[in-house]
């Protein structure tokens, strides 16, 4: 029982480290419950394989672990991890891994990089003929399939260390595109704030970029594009029909105005709640259709800034019902 607990700790440690790497990379793909066991490697994706290659084979079982015996009393042993040469030199079979769930051994490289069903049992369903295991391991090490898989594993490991994988270049392109759109939105939001702050009209009779009478918003976008590389590239994409969601329509303008209004109102409410004294000012006036419009203004002592001062905040304008 004690040995089982210790080995579970080893497996959990390996699993937690790879899960941590998966979260750090920003991937949301679901991992198997026990990633250190080859039994869960049949339906792996490329990102999962890259993590296994980057981390290497799972931690080996402790020397006092009791392996299961077969019908003739044979079982796997730690000695199979070491190959003794004729000259007395010893080599570590780093590619040999043991599955506790199946009580079988696998080749780490062939299990990850084999094509079709090549590679024998060590690359597919596992091998557990313990009596002939030493002979089988010797044959497997010299096979062309094993050498090919070992080469692929070494090449991928080298590329991962140099950050030159296909995923790396694809992620760089995605990050570059995200930065572009973030910069575009920052400029659009800044323009919306400027026009709203100065009570300027946003739209005219034309809502197409590059055409006459498109009023303030699109005209300022065109002006910014003359001096700004980011907005110039954005206008180029629109003209070349490379993008269809350009975030310059009146719907986006209204949405941004609503978001900014909510944030400003929230800041005003925080200031009012933090102040010690405040008063409410209501005023009504008829509009051109002779409907009463009521304004709500809050006057308070603003203590949130460095210098205490009295301020007034305009909150809303509502239609006031007239009673007869």
What does this structure look like?
The protein has 324 residues and is an alpha+beta fold. The protein contains nine helices and seven strands; from the N terminus they run ααββββαααααααβββ. It has helices spanning 2-24, 46-55, 108-113, 133-141, 144-162, 166-197, 215-227, 229-239, 250-274; strands at 82-84, 90-92, 96-99, 104-107, 278-286, 292-302, 309-319. A three-stranded antiparallel beta sheet has the order 5-6-7, covered by helices on one side. It has a two-stranded antiparallel sheet with strand order 1-2. A hairpin with a 5-residue loop joins strand 5 and strand 6. The longest helix is centred in the middle third of the chain and has 32 residues, at 166-197. It starts with a helix and ends in a 5-residue tail after the last strand. Mean pLDDT is 78; it is low at 1-28.
Q: Give the biggest sheet.
A: 3 strands, antiparallel
Q: Radius of gyration in whole Å, from Cα?
A: 34 Å
Helix proportion range: 40-55%
| Span of the ends, CA to CA | 88 Å
Mean pLDDT: 78
Question: Class by helix and strand content?
Answer: alpha+beta
Number of extended strands: 7
| Total number of helices | 9
Q: State the low-pLDDT regions, or none.
A: 1-28
* Anisotropy-based shape: elongated
Strand-residue proportion: 5-15%
Strand order in the largest sheet: 5-6-7
Helices and strands, in N-to-C order? HHEEEEHHHHHHHEEE
Gist?
The chain has helices at 2-24, 46-55, 108-113, 133-141, 144-162, 166-197, 215-227, 229-239, 250-274, and strands at residues 82-84, 90-92, 96-99, 104-107, 278-286, 292-302, 309-319.
């Amino acid at each position: 029982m004690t040995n089982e607990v210790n080995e579970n700790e080893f497996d959990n440690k390996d699993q937690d480290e790879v899960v941590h790497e998966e979260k750090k990379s920003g991937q949301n793909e679901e991992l198997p419950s026990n990633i250190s066991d080859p039994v869960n490697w049949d339906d792996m994706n490329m990102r999962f394989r890259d993590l296994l290659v980057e981390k290497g084979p799972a931690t080996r079982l402790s020397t006092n672990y009791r392996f299961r015996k077969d019908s003739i009393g044979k079982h796997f042993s730690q000695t199979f991890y070491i190959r003794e040469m004729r000259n007395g030199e010893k080599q570590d079979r780093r590619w040999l891994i043991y599955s506790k769930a199946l009580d079988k051994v696998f080749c780490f490289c062939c299990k990850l990089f084999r094509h079709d069903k090549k590679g024998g049992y060590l690359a597919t369903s596992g091998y557990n003929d313990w009596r002939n295991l030493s002979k089988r391991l010797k044959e497997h090490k010299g096979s062309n399939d094993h050498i090919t898989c070992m080469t692929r594993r070494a090449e991928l490991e080298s590329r991962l260390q140099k950050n030159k994988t296909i995923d790396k270049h694809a992620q760089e392109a995605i990050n570059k595109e995200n930065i572009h759109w973030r910069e575009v939105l920052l400029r659009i939001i800044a323009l919306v704030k400027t026009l709203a702050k100065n009570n300027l009209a946003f739209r005219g009779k034309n809502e197409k970029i590059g055409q006459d009478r498109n009023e303030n918003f699109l005209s300022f976008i065109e002006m910014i594009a003359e001096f700004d590389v980011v907005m110039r590239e954005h206008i180029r994409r629109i003209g070349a029909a490379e993008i269809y969601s350009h975030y310059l329509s009146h719907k986006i303008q209204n949405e941004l105005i609503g978001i900014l209004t909510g944030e400003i109102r929230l800041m005003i409410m925080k200031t009012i709640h933090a102040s010690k004294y405040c008063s409410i000012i209501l005023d009504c006036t008829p509009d051109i259709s002779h409907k009463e419009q009521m304004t709500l203004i809050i006057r308070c002592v603003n203590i949130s800034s460095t210098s205490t001062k009295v301020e007034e905040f305009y909150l809303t304008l509502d239609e006031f019902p007239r009673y007869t």
